[in-house]
């Protein structure tokens, strides 16, 4: 029994010892593998750690712990070179440039259909480009016009020049201040003219000399200036910078005393150009006006186009329905009837200057481009002698017919 007991204990002891040996063998194997990895890394020239002398000995491991090595050549066995890092490949810098525009090829149906769609897309985006360009042209036109007006005002002594050596800000401040003074003096002049008109009317009412043509026109001009006084004061106080735009596109809003000399010349030139355009492009409409009954012209116009053509030729507004245009023409012709009587009384216009002759003929719808003073006087005499030559129709209808004849250049 004691023998069998000792044998059992010995067998358990050997079993326990073999178990510890296998455990030590596997632990040693794992440590050897990690040591091999560390020694491999430490052999690299860039490794910063010092190799430990503890693991410098060579230990053989079973083949089951390694993978099958790849096939090597004799040259690779003999050449034992240290591990090196390959140099990174530096790419050459590529310079980007736009390629040439290729012309469209019309051989394919899809390309041809795409080419057909392109004008539609471009036309849809074209108004935006035109509006932008038109806005730029408008701003350039206004600035150039304003500079030219100030230049002419400096030349004629209407406005004082900026002080020498003044900067851009000082020059702009000087211009704004002088323009404000000019407009203020013009507004004061309207009030002064109003007092003169009252004195003229008091003289006539008291039995003095009757009104002359100059006094009659002076009273009419002051009346129109008073009607424009309040809107113009509002514009000057709120937004003075839009006055150049008003001069270009709405000169009828400006009082006569608040217009520079160059601005007046530009307004007159634009009015004459518009008058000539209506006379040349609407000749057929004026022929229809001549064919109408003179008695009927006193109450109505032949067509809507005739009202537009006559208003354009007389430099009147063309907006609104036809009865509004007919009312403007009638009121304008009433002032012309009074002016004709005064001209006949003062020598058929022989004492008028060249600018006064231009103004008188343009009020009657007669184109004056390129005419000398003698021709202007002859045209005015033709009007005065023909207007009241016959009793056919009313004075207003006869003058409407004369306006149509002058547009057709029938001065016989």
In words, what does this structure look like?
The structure is a single chain. With about 400 residues, the chain is mostly helical. Among the domains are: about 140-260, no CATH class; about 265-410, no CATH class. Helices cover about 65% and strands about 0% of the residues. The protein has 14 helices and no strands. The chain has helices at about 1-40, 75-80, 110-155, 170-205, 215-240, 245-250, 260-280, 285-290, 295, 305-315, 320-345, 355-365, 375-385, 395-405. Helix 7 runs antiparallel to helix 10 (about 305-315), helix 8 (about 285-290) crosses helix 10 and helix 11 crosses helix 14.
Q: Helix/strand-derived class?
A: mainly alpha
Strand content: under 5%
What is the helix/strand order?
Answer: HHHHHHHHHHHHHH
Alpha-carbon distance between the termini? 169 Å
List the total number of helices: 14
Radius of gyration: 52 Å
State the total count of DSSP E strands: 0
Integer average pLDDT = 74
Unreliable segments of 5+ consecutive residues: 1-83, 105-132
- Secondary structure: helix percent: 55-70%
Please describe the biggest sheet, giving its number of strands, its sense, and whether it closes into a barrel.
Answer: none
Spatial shape: globular
